[in-house]
Design goal:
The complex is a heterodimer. Chain A is built from 10 helices and 16 strands. Chain A has one domain: Glutamine Phosphoribosylpyrophosphate, subunit 1, domain 1 (4-Layer Sandwich). Chain A is globular. In chain A, the strands form 3 sheets. Chain A has a 6-stranded antiparallel β-sheet with strand order 7-2-8-1-14-13, with helices on one face. A 6-stranded antiparallel β-sheet of chain A has the order 9-10-11-12-15-16, with helices on one face. Chain A is α+β, with helices and mostly antiparallel strands. Chain B has 2 domains: about 110 residues, Alpha-Beta Plaits; about 400 residues, TIM Barrel (Alpha-Beta Barrel), CATH 3.20.20. Chain B is built from 16 helices and 21 strands. In chain B, the strands form 7 sheets. In chain B, strands 9-19-18-16-15-12-11-10 form an 8-stranded parallel β-sheet. In chain B, strands 6-20-21 form a 3-stranded mixed β-sheet, with helices on one face. A two-stranded antiparallel sheet of chain B has the order 1-4. In chain B, β11, α6 and β12 form a beta-alpha-beta unit. The longest helix of chain B has 23 residues. In chain B, about 50% of the residues are buried. Classes of the chains: A alpha+beta, B alpha/beta. Chains A and B meet through α5 and α9 of A and α3 and α11 of B.
């Protein structure tokens, strides 16, 4: 089973603290990889403005790096900051990691006249362009994200080992949100793109468990004709895309996500204040119903974080913390390691109907039940 | 010596050995009660006087060694029209197990099947013995360690399907906000009683089905619906609250629609849906056919025709100039008749052109679904050539259409329903779930329902299959009260309920090991395997062996 750890705090912290949480949960899994997502970034040697796009990825060769530079220049990006990882290559399992990329760019001048939606689309297309360029060249270029205030790192190996290998303990990068997932997708061949967390236009999720309804969901998303709905090297990638679809494409509040992936039964909808709307939503989003077992941890561009379960089988996940800092982990000892000083009696393990929402102010958890009304007055 | 002219041989004369079924009769058990001859629907049995030799050994006598005995025996008629159909009614009524039909591989009556210049007609399905392709598909994505299997007996399962046009989610949210029309949908059990008309079925059978369906809905909470077929619906049903369990079919003969239109203002509820029949799998290119034998007084009244005349519906609707026009006119007219609150969908026969029909429907905002009826579909009456050799197998038709919808991202918008041979060998749930995982939203089944709920005797060895002439030995497809009173509607209703309960259990039993319980696994093709490489490639599923 995968190990998941997420911490969100008002004060930026080092991702290494989340990796220690991963280490605490080491028993019972293969620790074959690490995926990190950082949001709300602070660099020790650069003052980041929070709005410039950041490219995360790996150039596997000098040639690929040159090609990348060329592509980015051609598109009109200008490099503002190139984070240099203190890599200890002897600790990296793979031997084709020429350079880990974490670069802050200034977005092309030509985009100044574009709307936010258009800029977001361009950023996504640019990332997909880099990805396909890498794939055309024997996978020598990997692009995980290109988005303001988001950094992603994915690597094969024991999570703490990867942290050491990339010098994440140096404290040069800090973030207010950090997602860590401790396993490569060993169900299939090793592929960095198959590693959680998954990211699309500011929306990210990581998941524990297996997605039994993967194929019909994938088929439906792929058919939407949206360029970002692609990849699917992992059956969990669809969870990120569904969250993207619900919040960005349908413009529904985060609470609707739960109603899409695990809709209520007829008898429950009959007593629900928005039963009619939700019944219709269940029908139109029928192909997005998941069957679990899953614990889904997600994050939105405004640093809101969430945790939800499938409707029946559930996977372990605990949320705990204090006002200002909250942690979610697949094992309780993970939460203990990340936030040892907290009132454990207030830890919460969501059930089938819950969505735990940690709002950007991080003052208190919202434990929202599917049986409650959700905030969409105009539609419901 | 016997003179040649006295041997009764003419081109179409047959011996019992040439017939598809040979009646085996044991004189030593027979009590000559005559029940078999009385019940035989085709009058193939006749009691005749026969003579047999009684050899005896008489060594010291001057007499010759044999004497003869005259007895009453049973003779099997060898006329093609009165050949034994293998129904076994004789065996059912015989008090002494003295008689039963035996299948004869050496049958050559088919060469004489055309009588009076007309080609052979019958009811039933394509005569192809053995399992279908669907029977060979297995569900092999078993959840075990990474995803624990579910408990079919204790967990809650959701497996209903949607009949009706489903909007794209963006459009649904927009219309909800602006208060615009949202197409009607029905949440129904994915196993639908397919279109068998009031006319094809006896009144007792029809009533039994409706009773069973109502019980499933109102007592058991299984939302089963049934389709009328062409020929309308009894007037009291149209004005009853049971209409909501009924899909009204309109076909090219428009039989029964006078009554239906007249009843609209008095309807207590809307029907489940309207099915526009453009074709059917058993006889593609033909309209419905109700032969004169079955046009009784009641049927004649319902259909608005004289008694005792053949009722062949035209092959196409009179309004049909093109698919675009037909789809536009008929679907819209029907939608309008029920105030856009009832799903309207076409039924077509399986065909290589099914995809073009589908693509037309995709562009029609009022089209609610597509029902494709494959070559193994059954019928009450059709020509042999249509039944046996015309049509398209359902599996590839469904798969191609589904994958086509996937490409367009519209697989949730237009549900595709499959029919034709579902449960042909009794594996109704396995067949249906295979079709569902290939992309169907549900299945229609007719013949299976007759077999499971009323004991229809028909088989793919051409057993019985006399639905067309109204002599159904079980009373399922007869309009003759002397015959159909054999069938007790209450017992049919009981069987309907038992059948759907058992289907429900099997659906859970099949879904649970796949780890699915939250929704019907439509298009879950990763769970399908078949030990036939060509079929696997064609259907885009796994080859397993």
């Amino acid at each position: 089973m995968c190990r998941l750890a997420m911490k969100t705090a008002s004060e930026a912290f080092s991702p290494f603290s989340v990796l220690t949480g991963m280490e605490a949960m080491q028993e019972g899994y293969d620790g074959s990889g690490l995926g990190l997502l950082l949001r709300g970034l602070e660099f020790a040697d650069y003052k980041y403005n929070g709005t410039d796009p950041i490219l995360s990825g790996i150039a596997h060769s000098e040639k690929a790096l040159k090609r990348l530079n060329h592509i980015m220049e051609e598109q009109g990006f200008s490099l503002k900051y190139d984070h240099e990882f203190e890599v200890r290559p002897e600790l990296v399992e793979a031997d084709d990691r020429h350079q880990y990329l974490l670069r802050v760019y200034r977005q092309p001048k030509a985009w100044d006249s574009l709307t936010t939606d258009q800029v977001e689309h361009e950023l996504m297309m640019c990332r997909l362009g880099l990805r396909s360029n890498g794939e055309e060249h024997d996978g020598d270029l990997t692009a995980f994200s290109l988005w303001p205030d988001v950094a992603m790192i994915k690597e094969v190996g024991w999570p703490l080992g990867v942290g050491n290998a990339l010098g994440l303990d140096s404290g040069r990068i800090k973030s207010r949100v950090c997602f860590a997932q401790g396993r490569q997708n060993t169900n299939y061949g090793i592929n960095l793109y198959a590693c959680h967390p998954f990211f699309l236009q500011g929306v990210a999720t990581m998941t524990n468990g297996e997605n039994t309804a993967f194929v019909p969901i994938k088929d439906w998303l792929s058919g939407k004709g949206f360029p970002g709905y692609m990849g699917y090297q992992s059956d969990s990638e669809v969870f990120a895309h569904i969250l993207h679809y619900v919040t960005k494409k349908l413009g529904l509040p985060l609470q609707a996500y739960k109603h899409v992936i695990t809709p209520l039964a007829n008898k429950d909808l009959a007593n629900h204040p928005q039963g009619d709307f939700l019944l219709g939503l269940r029908q139109v989003c029928r192909r997005l119903i998941i069957d679990g077992p899953n614990a889904i941890i997600g994050s939105l561009p405004d640093e809101t974080c969430m945790l939800a379960m499938d409707a029946k089988k559930l996977r372990p996940a605990t949320v705990g913390g204090n006002p200002g800092e909250w942690a979610v982990a697949s094992e309780m000892c993970g939460v203990d390691a990340m936030i040892p000083d907290r009132d454990r009696s207030k830890d919460f393990q969501p059930m089938r109907q819950h969505t735990v929402i940690i709002p950007p102010d991080r003052q208190e958890l919202e434990i929202w039940s599917q049986f409650d009304q959700f905030p969409l007055t105009q539609a419901a | 010596m016997v003179s040649i002219r006295s041997i009764p041989s003419h081109p179409s004369s047959l011996s019992t050995n040439d017939l598809p079924w040979i009646v085996e009769h044991r004189e030593d058990r027979c009590t000559l009660c005559g029940k078999c001859a009385a019940v035989c629907p085709v009058n193939t049995l006749k009691l005749t006087y026969m003579r047999k030799r009684m050899p005896k050994i008489a060594i010291d006598s001057k007499e010759r060694g044999s004497s003869y005995k005259t007895f009453v025996g049973i003779r099997q008629n060898t006329d093609v029209g009165r050949r034994c159909i293998g129904c076994g009614s004789c065996a059912m009524v015989c008090p002494n197990e003295a008689i039963h039909p035996v299948f004869n591989e050496a049958d050559r009556h088919r060469f004489m099947g055309s009588v009076g210049g007309d080609a052979p007609k019958r009811g039933g399905r394509r005569n192809e013995v053995g399992g279908s392709l669907l029977d060979r598909i297995v569900f092999n994505r078993i959840s075990m360690l990474t995803d624990p299997a579910l408990d079919a007996g204790r967990h809650e399962f959701t497996y209903n399907t949607i009949l009706g046009r489903v909007l794209p989610p963006e459009e649904y949210v927009r219309r909800q906000q602006t208060g615009e029309w949202i197409p009607p949908t029905r949440e129904i059990f994915p196993f639908i009683i397919g279109s068998m008309s009031f006319g094809a079925l006896s009144p007792n059978m029809w009533l039994g089905l409706l009773q069973g369906v109502a019980y499933c809905n109102e007592v058991l909470g299984i939302p089963v619906v049934m389709c009328t077929g062409e020929g309308g619906c009894p007037p009291w049903v149209l004005r009853s609250p049971f209409l909501k369990y009924i899909i009204l079919q309109i076909a090219s003969g428009y039989f029964g629609w006078d009554e239906i239109i007249r009843a609209i203002p008095e309807m207590q509820c809307d029907p489940a849906a309207i099915e526009i029949k453009y074709g059917q799998g058993a006889k593609p290119g033909d309209g419905g056919l109700l032969q004169w034998f079955k046009v009784s007084k009641l049927i004649a009244r319902l259909r608005g025709v004289p008694e005792g005349v053949d009722l062949p519906s035209p092959p196409v609707h009179q309004t049909l100039y093109s698919i675009e026009e037909s789809v536009m006119k008929m679907i819209q007219t029907m939608s309008m008749a029920w105030n856009f609150k009832v799903p309207v969908y076409p039924k077509i026969s399986g065909s290589t052109s099914a995809k073009s029909v589908l693509n037309n429907l995709v562009r029609n905002p009022y089209a609610s679904a597509l029902l494709i009826d494959g070559i193994d579909g059954g019928t009450g009456a059709a020509y042999d050539i249509s039944l046996n050799a015309t049509g398209h197998p359902i599996a590839t038709n469904i798969r191609d259409c589904y994958l086509d919808l996937c490409k367009q991202g519209k697989q949730n918008e237009i549900p595709i329903f499959a029919a034709g041979g579902v449960g042909k060998t009794g594996n109704v749930v396995q067949n249906a779930l295979a079709l569902i995982m290939l992309g169907a939203s549900g299945v229609h089944m007719g013949k299976y329902i007759m077999q499971a709920t009323a004991g229809c005797l028909g088989s793919e060895r051409n057993r019985c299959n006399v639905c067309n002439v109204g002599i159904c030995p079980k009373g399922i497809t007869s309009q003759n009260p002397k015959i159909y009173r054999r069938l007790d509607p209450d017992e049919v209703a009981q069987r309907v309920v038992e059948t759907f309960q058992s289907i429900q259990i099997e659906v859970k039993k099949a879904m649970a090991p796949l780890g699915r319980s939250q929704s019907l696994p439509i298009g879950m093709s990763d769970a399908l395997g078949i030990a036939d490489k060509d079929a696997a490639d064609r259907l885009n599923i796994k080859y397993v062996c």
